[in-house]
Amino acid sequence: MIKTCQNFINGKWTPPSSGKYYEIRNPADKDEIIGQFPLSEIQDVDQAVLAASKAFLAWSKLLPMERAAYVEKFTTLLDEKTNYLGECLCREQGKPLVEAIGEPSRGVKECKYVIGEATRLQGLSLPSERQGVTNTVVREPVGVIAAITPWNFPMLTPLRKTIPALIAGCTVVLKPSYDTPWCSVLLLELFEKAGFPAGTVNLIMGRGSQIGDALSGNPLVRGITFTGSTIIGRQINKTAAANFAKVQLEMGGKNPAIVWDYANITGAAKSIAVAAFANAGQRCTAVSRVLVKRSQAEELEKALIAIIKEYKVGPGLEKENTIGPVVNKKAGDSIMEYIAKAREQGATIAIGGNQLKGGVYDKGYYIESTLVTNVTPDMAVAREEIFGPVLTVQKVDSFDEALEVANSSEYGLASCIFTDTQANIYRFMKESQSGMVHINHGSVSESFMPFGGIKMSGLGPFSIGATNKDFFMNTKVIYNQYI
Description:
- With about 475 residues, the chain is of the alpha/beta class.
- It has two domains: about 5-250 and about 455-480, Aldehyde Dehydrogenase, Chain A, domain 1; about 255-445, Aldehyde Dehydrogenase, Chain A, domain 2.
- The chain has 15 helices and 24 strands.
- The strands form seven sheets. A seven-stranded mixed sheet has the order 14-17-18-13-12-20-21, with helices on both faces.
- Helix 6 links the parallel strand 8 and strand 9.
- The chain starts with 6 loop residues before the first strand and ends with a strand.
C-alpha cells in the first residue's frame, strides 16, 4: 500500500486542513510511487508556528547540555539507520546509492560536532571604565526558526538547519522541498523517537508558493534559514524584513575553476569532474565552468573527456551506476534547453549532450554528463546556473583575464584554482569573489567548516561550524554595578 504521510505539529502527526495530498515518484522509475504528502495551507503553518512558539518558552530554559542530551539520542538513532535512510533518499531524489548513504553518514558527523557546541555558546567578559561595574556579553536563542530546505540534499540540509537551532535553544518549523518531503518525514520520526518535547520540532509540507510567505512572514518566526534559488531567497528576504526577522540564505552558484600553469592536468581533471558531476551536477557548489590557460586547454579537455567516458548513468540503487537521473522532467527539460542554446550560440558539445532513452531510461529523466567547449563569456551556459551535469571550458590568455571572468558572475559561492605558482595562489585567495576558496582540489566542503557565499549566493551568517551561533543566537549586553 502507498503510505500517506502527515504533517508533524506539536508532537502529533496531523493531516492538512485542506484534506489534500500529492504523490512523489521515484525519479529513476516514474512508475514507483514513494508516497502521498500533505498540501498544507496557511492555517497549518500558523498552527505549527504557534506550537513552536509555545514550546520555545520551556526549551530555551533548558541547560545547553540538557538540550544536547536529546540531540545525542537522535544522533544515535540516525547513525543506526544510515543505510536504510540512504536507500530511501536514493529512491526519492535519485542520486547514486553511495552518495545517498553519504548524506545521513555525514549528518551524523555534523550532529556530533554540534552537540559539542552546547559547551561553546560562549560570550565575552570585558573590563569596565568604572569602578564597581562588570561588563558581560551573553548569547540567547533567537526564538522560532523557519527552516526551508531544497530537494538536492533532502536529508543533510534539514539536519544542518534543525540541529544547530535546537542546540542553541531555538524551536523549529521545517518546510522541506515540495519534490523531496519523504526524507524529512523520516527524520521527524527519529526526532519523535528520541523524545523531543512536543512543539520543539515541527514539519509542514506542501507547495512553497502556497505556504512560503505565510511561514517566512509569520511574526512569531524570528529567523529564516533557507537553501535554494536566488529568486526565492530574494523574496524571503523581503518578506522577513517586514518583521525584522533574521535571515540565513544559501542560494545559487556559478562556480569557476581556474587551471593555470599546473603540471598535474590529469589530477586537476579528476577533481573538477567530481566537483562538476556528483549528484548529476545538482549542487549549488558544483564546478560548472573551467577557465584554462590556452596552452593547457587541449590536454585538460582530453583528460575530462576520458573521465566522462567512464561514467555509467542509470538508477542510483544499482551500485555500478555513478550518475543517477535528474530530479524530474521540469529540471531535465531546462538542462536540455541550455545544451541546445549552447549549440545555437556556437559552442561545441565535446561529449554527452543527450537525454538517454530506451529501456530503463524511459522510466526516468537521464542526461549524459556533458562537456561544452569553445565557450565565450557571453553565452548562457557560461553565465547562468544550469543545475545539471553540464561543464563548460573557456580558454583564457592571461591570469588577469582568468580572474576577471571568474569574478564576472553575479554569484559568489565557491571557486577553485589549480596552479603550481605560489604568486597565483596568493592572488586567488585575496581576489576571488567567493565565500569559499579551494586550492588544488575541487569544491568539496568539510563537516565543521563554515559554509556560505557572497553576492547573489548568500546573505547572513555562514552555516555549519562555529558561525551558526551568529544566526541562531542574539547578543545581549549586561552592565552590572555591584558597588
